[in-house]
From TrEMBL:
The keyword Metal-binding applies. GO terms for molecular function: heme binding; metal ion binding; peroxidase activity. Belongs to the DyP-type peroxidase family. Residues 35-150 form the DyP dimeric alpha+beta barrel domain. One of its GO terms (cellular component) is cytosol. InterPro entries: Dimeric_a/b-barrel, DyP_N, Dyp_peroxidase. The lineage of its organism: Bacteria, Bacillati, Actinomycetota, Actinomycetes, Streptosporangiales. This is Dyp-type peroxidase family protein. Keywords: Iron, Metal-binding, Oxidoreductase, Peroxidase. The keyword Oxidoreductase applies. Its cofactor is heme b. It comes from the Bacteria. PROSITE patterns: DYP_PEROXIDASE.
Length: 450
């Protein structure tokens, strides 16, 4: 752990070394990774697996540049904690959303139609998903090294089965399947010792992201019992999202008359240019140097630079999911998340407008201490409705569920433009709510007794 993180964390009382490394790190760039789901058929085997995994799970930061670290993280669904034999009194102390699971709350967060749990990829949404392992690394060699102990532990523990795996890696373009650079924005968390990506963002209280510390309300977020289980843990929403890249390109082509218009319309829907340069700072054209500069590409506010959305529309994807200081209904600081998107599958070749049938998209990880007022609120109110920005019924043009009937407003002078007949460009292939415990909590789980 670097000295700055240690000093700053200590001054704020944050026990950084007890927080799993995978909880707070920005995503490496470039990156290689893997997600693994396990089913526990015998609680004693599950605890034995944890004891074998513990040496591979580290806390805190391990270098001056945490974005270059590799890490393995382990999290549990509600059913997974039950399978390990966690006492019912402790299970009952977890929040309702976590106990119910993501599939049971699909209507609330917009997983309907072809995104409904009935169409999810097995084993998502079933009682079989118990343990979620994730590993991210800047390269394949370090990924293999980080996962080696986990492989041995899984292989040598009868009674625990690997039931799903997904490899993820940065595409050769360094962008998402839709062609946009991501992984740019990371919150500024008070006392962490790791600067956020936006120097204009006032630090957010640690309790927004880690249990056991005050949040933005000044209170401690509800924490599962006993304290050793809850403290320094957090909640993770894991989602596999299929991207309809051909449909995205077809819509852009059908609603523009030139390549330049096509690029601008895409940027208006996303809120950034493909390079990552934000529309708020460069509204007329892409700026590759700006997009590649981590000191500038997230250094902006909306009320200061673009209050009326003539540069970046209020309904654009990045402005919806992180409104910053924009004039909205509610307090944006109450709904911040740590977000990590990781790509899977092959890119659709440049210029191809027809779907090739390949499965491609992202595995998204959304981390926060409050499932309902962070992840679920953002999905229900900001992504799949527009009341908070004064456009009732309008959904996120990129991530919203539209089903061919969606609309989106783009402010322009003298007359605003209104997009019509938006299809859904993303399909949920599965999701789970997980609890990511601190290291002491992992040891407590590993040493449970019947």
């Amino acid at each position: 752990m670097n000295a700055e993180a240690s000093t700053s964390g200590a001054s704020a009382g944050i026990e950084i070394d007890d927080i799993q490394s995978g909880a707070l790190h920005p995503r490496p760039a470039p990156y290689e990774g893997r997600f693994i789901f396990l089913r526990v058929d015998d609680r004693h085997a599950g605890r034995s697996l944890l004891r074998r995994l513990l040496p591979a799970i580290e806390g805190g930061f391990h270098s001056a540049d945490p974005s270059q670290d590799a890490w393995v993280a382990v999290a549990f669904t509600y059913q997974g904690l039950r399978a390990l034999g966690v006492p019912q009194e402790s299970l009952d102390s977890f929040p309702r959303a976590f106990r119910q699971g993501m599939a049971a709350r699909a209507d609330l967060i917009g997983d309907v139609g072809e995104s409904a749990p009935a169409h999810w990829e097995p084993p998502f949404g079933t009682a079989d998903v118990h343990i979620a392992l994730s590993a991210l690394s800047p390269d394949a060699a370090r990924l293999d090294k980080a996962l080696e102990r986990a492989r041995i532990a899984c292989r040598d523990t009868p009674g625990v089965q690997v039931i799903w795996q997904q490899e993820v890696r940065q595409l050769p373009t360094g962008r998402t399947t839709f062609g946009f650079r991501d992984g740019i924005s990371h919150p500024n968390i008070e006392g962490l010792g790791l600067p956020g990506s936006n120097p204009r963002e006032a630090p957010l209280k640690a309790g927004e992201f880690i249990l056991g510390y005050p949040d933005e309300t000044g209170n401690l977020p509800p924490m599962p019992s006993p304290d050793v289980l809850g403290r320094n843990g957090t909640y993770v929403a894991v989602r596999k999202i299929h991207t309809k890249v051909a449909a995205w390109r077809q819509y852009l082509r059908a609603n523009t008359s030139s390549a330049r218009e096509e690029a601008l319309l895409a940027a208006k829907m996303v809120g950034r240019w493909p390079s990552g340069a934000p529309l708020t700072l460069t509204p007329e054209h892409d700026d590759a140097a700006l997009g590649a500069d981590p000191h500038r590409n997230n250094d902006f506010l909306y009320r200061e630079n673009d209050d009326r959305g003539f540069r970046c529309p209020a309904g654009a994807h990045i402005r919806r999911t992180n409104p910053r200081d924009a004039a909205i209904i509610g307090d944006a600081r109450m709904h911040r998340l740590i977000r990590r998107g990781t790509s899977y599958g092959p890119p659709l070749p440049e210029g191809v407008l027809e779907d090739d049938g390949a499965d491609r998209g992202l595995v998204g990880v959304f981390i926060g201490a409050h499932i309902e007022r962070q992840f679920e609120f953002i999905k229900a109110e900001w992504v799949n409705d527009g009341n908070f920005i004064g456009f009732p019924g309008e959904k996120d043009p990129v991530a919203g569920h539209h089903d061919g009937t969606g609309s989106a407003t783009i402010p322009e002078r003298p007359i605003r433009r209104r997009l019509q007949n938006l299809p859904s460009f993303v399909v949920t292939r599965g999701g789970e709510y997980c609890f990511l415990p601190g290291l002491r909590a992992l040891r407590w789980l590993a040493e449970l007794r019947d």
